[in-house]
């Protein structure tokens, strides 16, 4: 069903573009640049950039529209079909492959964007299979372990110890031992103590963000990567997925097994809208959670709760690993004000704008100067962000990796989402991923 939907969407987009019906965002004009983003927390920072941009470019007005994550992608896709797309929008690497394939993005090769001006890898990810650039690096994020300091102290786990954890898929290593010790049942017994009742847990050692679909960003990806596994056969535009790997399946089986042991919040308690990992920690239901840098302000905003962060645990391959995702700004192929859009995107990608954004202490901008400004802003708020920045700076101890960048990303999600839910929530064997992987690779062979 999902594959038919994507095919129909591709046809509708092709028809709309070929007929020339696309005409830019509503209200767009030669003097207005329409810009869409999804993060309300970032809107003030980009409004500040827009104000500076308008002063430097008299006669141009940037009109910013902010939408929630789900509404954002639904309305953006619909806008391509209806011809009401914005001139510029915040793009996500998960969506990039499909947009590039549908040819709804404007090449940005003439904007003078140099990969060397940004954190390693961020610029190269936004080149299509044709070698052309379709996104200007905007910001980046990594994943770390957030934890309740009071609960950690009660368990005798110091910050140094939490920053020195390791794991393996056989017995879980010191990471599983720490998670077990942070777990407390309804009678006060810890997960590693005699008599622990896994069916009546008061506080879980680890929160959950669900099954992780096909990327597992804040779920299992740090473990699969630190075991030496990669999503596809190539770093970018892979032609084969590797969910049938015995390494991948053994890690996933161990990871979801933490819930079976009573150490991790079960799938039945997870809700993508109202009960994500951060909500579980805020409610005192879980002592720790893996989450992304975009959630730093949220975790440190929990009332009456002192939150610490630790780097991801070292794996069998000997290094720590975290996904390093990077957003970008893209121009739509049929932008009404293409000249103004080019100037705006070039400014968004500049160190000047990214330092402004960094000064708000909400995200890590893509330029080193923007990142430094963000670190300083977090420091002023009393927030230590080294667990997120060290993986980018220390390549000897850490491995960073990107979302898988391939064709048919929406179809991969449609197949992996229920497959991973079945493993986590219904106890289906991980070997079932062999069939799912074959279905995905059959698509990529087309």
Describe the structure.
The protein has 446 residues and is an alpha/beta fold. The chain is built from 17 helices and 13 strands. A six-stranded mixed beta sheet has the order 2-1-3-11-4-12. α2 links the parallel β1 and β2. It is globular, with a radius of gyration of 22 Å. The chain starts with a helix and ends with a helix.
Structure characteristics:
six-stranded mixed beta sheet, three-stranded antiparallel beta sheet, globular, 446 residues, disordered N terminus, 17 helices, alpha/beta
Q: How are the SSEs placed, and which strands pair?
A:
Layout: H1 2-18, E1 32-37, H2 43-56, E2 61-66, H3 69-82, E3 88-91, H4 93-101, E4 136-141, E5 143-148, H5 149-154, H6 159-162, H7 173-182, E6 184-185, E7 201-203, H8 221-226, H9 246-260, H10 277-282, E8 288-292, H11 296-299, E9 307-310, E10 320-323, E11 325-331, H12 338-348, H13 351-358, E12 364-365, H14 368-380, H15 386-393, E13 398-401, H16 409-426, H17 433-444
Parallel strand pairs: 1-2, 1-3, 10-13
Antiparallel strand pairs: 3-11, 4-11, 4-12, 5-8, 5-9, 6-7
Number of helices: 17
* Strands, total number: 13
How would you state the average pLDDT, rounded? 93
How do the strands line up in the largest sheet? 2-1-3-11-4-12
Largest sheet, described in full?
6 strands, mixed
The low-confidence parts are 1-12, 14-28
Beta-strand content bin: 5-15%
Q: What is the gist of this entry?
A:
The chain has helices spanning 2-18, 43-56, 69-82, 93-101, 149-154, 159-162, 173-182, 221-226, 246-260, 277-282, 296-299, 338-348, 351-358, 368-380, 386-393, 409-426, 433-444; strands spanning 32-37, 61-66, 88-91, 136-141, 143-148, 184-185, 201-203, 288-292, 307-310, 320-323, 325-331, 364-365, 398-401. With 446 residues, it is of the alpha/beta class. The radius of gyration is 22 Å and the shape is globular.
């Amino acid at each position: 069903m999902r594959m038919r939907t994507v095919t129909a969407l591709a046809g509708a987009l092709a028809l709309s573009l070929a007929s020339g019906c696309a005409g830019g965002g509503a209200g767009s004009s030669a003097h207005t640049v329409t810009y869409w983003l999804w993060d309300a927390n970032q809107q003030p920072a980009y409004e500040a950039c827009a104000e500076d941009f308008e002063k430097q470019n008299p006669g141009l007005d940037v009109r910013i529209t902010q939408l929630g994550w789900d509404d954002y992608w639904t309305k953006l896709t619909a806008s391509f079909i209806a011809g009401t797309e914005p001139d510029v929008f915040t793009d996500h690497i998960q969506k990039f492959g499909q947009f590039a394939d549908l040819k709804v993005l404007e090449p940005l090769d003439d904007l003078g964007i140099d990969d060397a001006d940004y954190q390693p890898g961020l610029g190269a990810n936004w080149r299509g299979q044709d070698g052309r650039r379709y996104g200007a690096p905007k910001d980046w994020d990594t994943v770390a372990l957030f934890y309740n300091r009071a609960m950690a102290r009660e368990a005798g786990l110091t910050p140094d110890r939490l920053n020195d954890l390791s794991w393996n898929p056989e017995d879980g290593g010191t990471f599983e031992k720490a998670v077990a010790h942070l777990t407390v049942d309804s009678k006060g017994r810890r997960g590693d103590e005699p008599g622990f009742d896994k069916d009546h847990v008061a506080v879980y050692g680890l929160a959950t963000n669900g099954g992780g679909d096909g990327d597992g960003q804040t779920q299992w990806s740090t473990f699969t990567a630190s075991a030496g596994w990669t999503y596809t056969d190539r770093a970018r535009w892979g032609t084969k997925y590797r969910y049938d790997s015995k390494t991948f399946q053994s890690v996933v089986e161990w990871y979801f097994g933490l819930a079976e042991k009573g150490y991790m919040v079960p799938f039945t308690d997870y809700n993508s809208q109202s009960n994500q990992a951060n909500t579980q920690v805020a409610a005192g239901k879980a002592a720790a959670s893996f989450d992304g840098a975009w959630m730093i302000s949220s975790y440190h905003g929990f009332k009456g709760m002192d939150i610490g962060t630790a780097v991801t645990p070292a794996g069998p391959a000997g290094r720590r690993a975290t996904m390093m995702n990077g957003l970008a700004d893209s121009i739509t192929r049929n932008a009404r004000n293409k000249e103004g859009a080019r100037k705006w995107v070039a400014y968004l990608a500049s160190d000047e704008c990214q330092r402004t954004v960094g000064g708000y202490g909400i995200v890590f901008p893509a330029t080193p100067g923007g990142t430094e400004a963000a670190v300083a802003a977090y420091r002023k708020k009393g927030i230590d962000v080294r667990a997120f920045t060290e993986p980018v700076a220390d390549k000897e101890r850490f491995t960073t990796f990107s979302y898988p960048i391939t064709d048919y990303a929406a179809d991969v999600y449609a197949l992996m989402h229920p497959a991973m839910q079945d493993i986590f929530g219904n106890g289906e064997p991980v070997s079932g991923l062999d069939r799912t992987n074959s279905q995905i690779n059959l698509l990529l062979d087309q």
